[in-house]
Amino acid sequence: MAKGEVVLTAQKVKKRKKTEKVVLITLLALLLFLVIAYFILNIVYNEGSFTISMDKNTYLESNLVMYESLNDRSPVYRLSTSKIAFMDNISIKWLPDNINNEAEGAHNGENYIAYTFYLENQGEETINYWYSLTIDDIIKNVDDAVRIMIFVNDDQVVYAKKSPITGEPEPDTTPFRDDEDNTIILEQREGMNPKDTDKITIVIWLEGDDPECVNAILGGEMKMHMDIYEEHVEEKIISEE
Question: DSSP class of residue 214?
Fold first, then answer.
């Protein structure tokens, strides 16, 4: 083999090894990305289909506390429902009549999510608070047929997305908001006196009587969270109006 051929072969080997090194580093970086993505998604989608959070400043400034059971009133700042493997469509008429009073914490039933928790004013002054519900992720437009029923004590409201066909609220429902940050519910609880306790129950299901409850949404998913705010949220509402 000539001297020039030896040099050329060595350069090819060196170039091949460099290419292999780049490919290996790229594959390792991709693998690391996939592992990180897996753990992030695993955390996001396995902490519950619905979470409830309260800013610690709300407790510090107004002494509003949140807890899951009347037998343990230790303040918590995050609650999470348990997931159900599959949710078929049902009618609101199929929900238990006593769903607001049947249990504390998670009390899911067949084809619906239900969760009950408490907010208590442990301070010495009358306060107001806000609660909002925000969509984190939607697959296959399943929100078109979702119903969310919220009890604050015995006051019940059913929320739903407006009909995409007529643009009008679905029968017997309060329409979702259309905020840029995907907040669909935002309500104020006024005049909570010292030592008052609010029981809040949230129920989520697919309404079979909704015209948008069709086969196209089969396999869809929806992830949401609720936040409990202090009075300063009122400034946001006033500025938007």
Answer: S
